[in-house]
Amino acid sequence: MELELRHLRVLCAVADAGSVGRAAADLGYSQPAVSTQLRRIEGHFGEPLFERGPAGVRPTPYGVEVVAQARDVLARAAAIGRRPGPGAPVRRTLRVAATNSPMLAGMVSGVRARLPEVSLAVSSVYASSRIVELLEECAADVAIAADYPGKELEHSDAVAHRGIVTEPNFVALPARHPLARRPQIALADLAEEAWFLTPDDGAGWPGVFHTACAAAGFTPKAVHEFLGDRSQLQGMIADGLGVAVVQATTRPIPQVVVKPLIGTPLWCRYVLAWRRDAVAEPAVEALLQSATGAYRELVARSPHLRTWAARTWSVTKA
After folding, report:
1. I need a labelling partner for 252 at 20 to 30 A (CA). Which of 100, 144, 173, 278 fits?
2. Which is nearest to 170 in space by CA: 252, 298, 261, 45?
3. Which residue blocks in the chain are alpha helix, DSSP H?
C-alpha cells in the first residue's frame, strides 16, 4: 500500500491513546476499522510497530522511531501554505520551564503536531521550587516540574497543575556489582555503597531519599552531589565509584544496569503546571496528551521498566 497522512494520524492516535479502542474513538472511527488500518500499516513497514498486552498497546522500539517521524511529517504537512487570515490569531510562543525529564523532547514534538500555531521556547530549570517561582513571576507560561507522594507541588491560585505520571525510582549500579543479576534490589542491601545524588530541588529531594534510607535501617555513608551530564554519571557508576537513584526510563550504557527497588520505597511524580491567565484549556490538554504520549514511548524503550510495570503498575497512574 502507499503510505498516506491518514495512516500517520492513526499511528500517532494509537501511540497517544495506548489503546486501539480509545484511538478509534478519538479519530471518530470504529475499532475494527482502526485495527484493520494498523495491520495494513505494520504490513507496509514489515514488522510490528506496537506490542499488545492486557493493559493496551505500546510502541515497539522500532515503532517509537516511526511514530516520532510521523509526528514530524504531520506537523510539517499542517504548516504547508498556511497564512494567517484576516482577524486570525497571531502565532504565539509559550515559555516552557522544564526540570530534568526525558519526556520533554517528545512533548515538544507532540505539541508541534497538535498545535502548529504555537511554538515553545524551552528553558532548562533543575529545581521545581524555582520553576514555581518563574510561573508566579510571569517569567514562564507552562512547565514540567516534579514532586513526591505526600509533598504536592505548592503554588498560588494563579498557577494550576495536573499530574502527568507517577513513576518509581530505580537504582543504577555497575554491571559487575554482586547484586547486578538480581531482578530487584533491597535498598538496605546498598547501605555500604557510595551514592551519587542530585542537589536539593526545593520540592522534597533528597529528603525523601534519606527518609527511605532511614526506614530501611541505615544512613548513607558517602554521598556525592552530582548535577551534570547523565553519560558522565553513568561512566562513574560503571567505574565502580558509586550507585545512584535514577529515573525508571533511564537507558543504561553496557557497563551499567538499572534495577527496581524491592517494595518501591521511592516515587516521583511529574506534573504539568501552567499560569491560568496564559494557557487556555485546549492548549493544556494538548500539552498533557503530548507529555503522556512521550512517556509511553519512553516506556517502550525501557525493558527494565516494562518488565516491572507488567507485574505491578500502569503508566496511566498520575
Report:
1. 144
2. 261
3. 5-17, 20-27, 31-45, 61-79, 104-114, 128-136, 207-215, 230-238, 281-300, 303-312
Q: Which of 204, 206, 194 is nearest to 237 (CA)?
A: 194
Same domain (yes/no): 196, 246: yes
Q: CA 224 to CA 237: how far, in whole Å?
A: 12
| Share of residues in the chain with pLDDT > 90 (%) | 57
* pTM score of the predicted model: 0.73
Domain range for 209 = 167-267
Question: Looking at the domain assignment, is residue 86 inside a domain?
Answer: no
- Give the number of domains in the chain: 3
Q: Is the pLDDT of residue 314 over 50?
A: no
Residue 74 CB partners (closer than 8 Å, separation 6+):
5, 8, 9, 12, 113
CA dihedral 170, 101, 296, 280 (to 10 degrees): 140
Owner of C-alpha cell 496564559:
278
Regarding whether 253 and 106 lie in a shared domain, the answer is: no
206 close to 284: Cβ distance less than 8 angstroms: no
d(CA 88, CA 85): 5
Q: What is the mean pLDDT of residues 190-214?
A: 96
CATH code of 154's domain: 3.40.190.10
